[in-house]
Amino acid sequence: MSQLPQFSWLSLLILLPLAGAAACALFARKPAVCRWLTLATTSTVFACALGLFSRFHAGGTGWLLYEDHAWIARFGIRYTLGLDGISLLMVLLSAFLLIISVLVSWGSIDRHVPLFHALLLVMESGILGVFLALDLVLFYLFWEVMLIPMFFLIGVWGHARRIYAAVKFFLFTLAGSLLMLLAILFLYILHGRQTGDWSFALEALKATSFSGVQEYWLYAAFFLAFAVKVPLVPVHTWLPDAHTEAPTAGSVILAGLLLKTGVYGLLRFGFPLFPQATAQSLPLLGGLALVGIFYAAWIAYLQQDAKRLVAYSSVAHLGFVILGLSAWNVTALEGSILQMVNHGITTGALFAMVGMIDARARTRRLDSLGGLWARIPILSCFFLFFSLASLGLPGLNNFAGEILILLGTFQSRPVLAAIAIAGVVFAAAYMLRLVQSVLWGAPRDETPWHDLTPNEALVLVPMALLVLWLGLYPAPFLEPLHEPVKALLATQGGLP
Description:
The protein has helices spanning about 10-25, 30-55, 85-105, 115-130, 135-155, 160-195, 200-205, 215-230, 240-245, 250-275, 275-300, 305-325, 330-360, 370-375, 375-390, 395-410, 415-440, 455-470, 475-480, 480-490, and strands at about 65-70, 75-85. It is mainly alpha-helical.
């Protein structure tokens, strides 16, 4: 474990957004000030995350940074944070996408502006906490903190059916969260009675022994909570509605970050705590991944709403991520983690662009769009670029992640890998339909539209550069993953 001297860097990452949210409350009557405060706060968090990535880009064994303090000592609850290569990439992605979310909201949010930006910052704190917490109570606290702001972002600033979508999102996530809470409490009691060490610490709870089917029931509770968040078919139905009704910033965060917390939860907590149940579940994971890839791709192809099409594409892309987990080898796991980063960038960019097009056309329906290449050629170039990245064009980021997942899956589950390759063809089908419906053909009317604005360029250019970097040279983002992935595999006795 390597530490930077005399400073709680991980706590700083979590507390900075909360301080920014408090500042927004102080300037509740000055919307413009709140916008700039939020941009300054998210930029500072990103600068800190970028500094950590620069410092620890080579990865290493153990925790790169670690903080541990007594919190509620009577019940063995500690304030424990840890950063390894996996959480390092997730923190960097989170900090980057929050800046994007602020920029895409700059001119589109004109109601309750201070509250909107305060909720964005609270959500950033919760997401970063999820990626850093190593005490299960602390993890659960951050898990709930990140969900509440999203409920209000959808319910207050969403579209026509926002209340329905927000309530559905809340009920699905609450059901999974309560099951996980019960499992955490049961695990705590079981471990305490066995060892006399009443602790919620991840490292301590790994030593818990199980009898009979205890491990399988506890794993099932954790798995369901994380599966809802991924989401896996059939517990995915909340996602298209949430994406369709959410404001653009909500969709960017939802696709880019909240879905990743489900996969991260499996990697950080589900798999290490329940190794034998994990071993038995891997074929099921692979099957669910294939169902998600093909079912979501087919439904995406049938959509008429561009935003809903991109939402279903998220389910399909996360299916590839889960497929890599089911393969359970270094290549596939590193590919899955890299693909989480790739998906956050490309799908976040597509949601941002759908919002930009909707602001001009006042519609997202594919049969009402068309001819954008002739009207807004620069914006159309970006739309085509990110669409090609999403379908896995070689040289762009999604291809790098997918090829690693497929190569790793061929090593351990060749039949699943062979079937999954057809999913790439399905992705090409729905993405090319989206491109054809939006960009080509004659314009629907002659109303002049303005092309790419400076604010939109601030959003799209950095994302496009990252797509190229990750597609052409992903090594800097893979290097921090080598040791934590090997450690994860090494601690899971009996797994293939």
